[in-house]
Protein: Phosphocarrier protein NPr
Amino acid sequence: MQLAQSFDAVLTVQSQDGREATADSVMGLLMLESAQGQNVVISAEGSQAEQALQAVCQLIEQKFDEDE
Structure:
């Protein structure tokens, strides 16, 4: 959520069943009910959209900086 708010962009997450939430809304993301292993589509709009998407992709690739 902090990452989503740090860019001049609106990040949107879409679940497999088509529901959408903005990435800066914890409640909205929880309402998507997406589980580990499910695919989501992340899109961005705004002057820093590309940078925001790159940062989110990096965070996901790093497994949200969690220890395994």
Remarks:
- The first strand starts at residue 10 and ends at 14.
